[in-house]
Amino acid sequence: MELVSQHVKKIMEECKVRARDEGLKFDDETLEYIVTNRDMIELSPKVMIPTLYDYWVHDVRVLSGKGMYEAYPSNPFETVINTRPAISFYNDNNPDWLNVMIFYHVLGHIDFFQNNLFFANTWDIDLAGQALADKRLIAQLRSEKGPRWVDYIIEFSRGMDNLVGYYRELDTTLRSQTQYIPKLSRQDYYFDIFLQKIKHVSHNTYLKEIERFNACRENMPQFFEPVLSQYPEFEQMYKKARKDREKPVWDIMEYIMRYSPFLRAQENQWMKSVIQIVRNTSLFFQPQIRTKIMNEGWASYWHEYLFMKDERICGHETDYAKVNATVTALPKVGLNPYALGLRLFEHIEDMQNRGCYSFEYFCLQDEINRQHFDKGKKNGHDFIFKVRENMNDFTFINRFVDQEFLDHYKLFVTGKRLNRERMTWQYYIKSKKANDYKNMVINTLYHPPVIHVDEEKTKDGVLYLVHEFEDKPLKTDYIENTMIGIEFLWGGPVYLETSEPEGTEQVKPPLSRFPDPSATAGAPAKSVRIKWKRVCYVMDKRKLNKREAA
User: How many domains would you assign to the chain?
Assistant: First the structure.
């Protein structure tokens, strides 16, 4: 692995100038390296961070990658990582014209890393430097404590590193930048929680209280005098609510590091450092996995937009078309994040140029009028920069995938069924509705389970975890190994409350004007609904038991 030549670096700097002229924003300093396929295979398990700490699973994945390469040789064009400065890697056999295209793609990624708000907690961190310090610390601990025990702690920590409180950390970062830290005021609690959610007062009573509040705006004690006389419990409930809101909420890894009886022992203090390294690394990569479609779509949009205007494409149009098609082809079955993100950004730009994100367009019911609607705003290019800044994959898909998008690109949801005569799988068009396609894409997005510590039930040496059920059960194959690691780090029994299917029940679907033609004539239509029950997994002395939740 070595830095690119001065000739290639000059090409990159020229691409930076043109990218900035079109509105992209990124730091001046970047590092570009030439790597071989062997380097790519060895760096991939470390998420392309050369200084990331060593771990035995990385070696296994390197051996697996070498075997895969021998069977299916492939040459990735580039990889870029979100560091300060941004580091990118390029295959050693890329010609100059291809590097121009790839540089535009990389600059799109760097612009996304450094301007999307979901990456705000990474903006002030040099991951390459921090990872090097972490690697040295872990190497020192291996020499002192033994590699076996250090690897145990890494493995146990990585078993739950998808449960880190990413959104809470992001919220804290953004609030610290704006200096906005909201507190629960007495009047907010009274109107928003006490009257509505606790007392459930009538609509008229609520409006009368608002009128009285407006009349006493300059004298708050006068407003609360009748409140305290009518509801003597109000003040105590307000203090408790404010205390609960201001109380820090720990994710599982934080809670274990802070309150684990096992880790409090002097001889086990070093384990906290390893757990913290794994947690910080996970937090750094959380935004990247939550913006995969947007990030790749944004980079693909800019490599196409900028390279098509670049005179260096002359003579290589066919080569470019072939390479670009392999990256951004839109499959009929399956998902390509590059293709979906690119097409959606182009769709958003076109819709905004025509003024379609307006109430007037929304009220149109006629498809022909919608197709010819054009208010000529022509600000779609500026609009997609705002989309790039403020959204992640979920909000991006949920907000902008509409019926016009599906109809324009002829997209649909596929189903899979078994042909019993030929004993083969058949794919068929299941739906062409935007909501169905949107839900299909959303179901493929990264969404780790929400599990928190129940502090009221965590007592007498027991750690009690609660899974907030979202109609998706936990993968039972991973429960035992993960809970063994948590039990070791906690130093006592671990309880996990979750939901599992108990059976099914038939429910009568709502009446429809368009009955299912496949239903048997005269037979009442029925659908099946899963019944769920709460269960509790108990890990005690490395033995797992399951029982009904209390």
Answer: 5
Give domain status of residue 439, yes or no: yes
Element (H, E) at 204: helix 203-215
Name, in order, each residue with C-beta under 8 angstroms of 491's C-beta and a sequence gap of 6 or more.
Answer: 260, 261, 262, 263, 461
Residue 349 — very low, low, confident or very high, per pLDDT cuts 50/70/90? Answer: very high
Structure token pair of residue 230:
């009518």
Question: Which residue range forms the structural domain that includes residue 222?
Answer: 186-246
Nearest of 354, 347, 358 to residue 371 by alpha carbon = 354
Q: Give the pair of three-digit tokens for residue 14.
A: 């020229």
Supply 216's token pair: 């006493």
Q: d(Cα 295, Cα 79) in Å, to the nearest integer?
A: 13
Does residue 491 fall inside a structural domain?
yes
The token pair that represents 516 in the structure block: 């299912």
Paired strand residues for 507: 527
> CB within 8 A of 327, min separation 6: which ones?
300, 338
Print the SS3 string covering 31-85. EEEEECHHHHHHHHHHCCCCCCCCCHHHHHHHHHHHHHHHHCCCCCCEEEECCCC
Tell me if 171 is assigned to some domain: no
pLDDT band at 521 (very low <50, low <70, confident <90, very high): very low
**How far is residue 12's CA from residue 344's CA, in Å, rounded to a whole number?**
27
- Output the pTM of the full model: 0.83
Strand 543-548 and strand 527-540: pairing? antiparallel
